[in-house]
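A quick aside before the break. I want you to see a complete sequence-to-structure record at least once, exactly as it would be stored in a machine-readable document. Don't worry about memorizing anything.
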Amino acid sequence: MARDRALVRNAADKKQVGTAAKREKLRREQELADLRALLELPEARRFLWRLMGHCKTFGSVFNELQHFTAYNAGRQDVGHFVMSEIVEADQAKLLTMMTESAASEKTDLDVAEAVQGEGHATTLDDQENPDANS
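That is the input. The structure line, written in tokens, reads:
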């Protein structure tokens, strides 16, 4: 990747250091602008929320097997990175994502209760073999 290349060949050259700092600042501003644009899309917010959930961003990484704890810690580190990027780009969007997720979970529960109340199949087994309970 181009990002892996050094922006300065001679650290004693103030002009090179100044130019590199400006390039780095512009690059970071572009990254945050890109993320802000994505955060405007509900689809992107849902995806990023799922990704953070997969990474156990808000959960425990502990597992009785030490190697799984280390594995989960690595996943969580990615989740923390994603969350910190969101917060730096637009802190309010993290709260928006939390609110949207809570509303979606409530809607899912309401639908499940309504379906169950109407006597519809509520498990995969019920759906595959509706006569099994008759």
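Two observations worth writing down. The CA atoms of residues 7 and 80 lie 27 Å apart. DSSP finds four helices and no strands in the chain. We'll return to this after the break.
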